[in-house]
Amino acid sequence: MRRIALSSMVFLGLSALPAAAQFAAGPPSVGTIVVTRRAITESSQFVGRVQATDKVDLIARVTAFVSERLFAEGAEVEKGQLLYRLERAPFEADVLSKQAAVQQNVALLRNANLSLARAQSLLDTPAGQRSTVDDREAAQQSQAAQLMAAQAQLRQSQINLDYTEIRAPVSGKIGRSAFAVGNVVTPNSGPLTSVVSQDPMYVLFPISVRAALDLRNRYANQGGFTAVQVKVNLPDGTLYNQIGHLDYVDPSVAANTDTVNLRAVFPNPLRSGSKANEPGNRDLIDGAFVTVSVEGVQPVLALAVPRAAVLSDQQGSFVYVVDAEGKAQIHRVELGQSTADTAVIASGLAEGETVITEGIQRVRPNAPVKATPAAPPVKG
Question: Do the beta carbons of residue 271 and residue 329 sit within 8 Å?
Answer without folding.
Answer: no
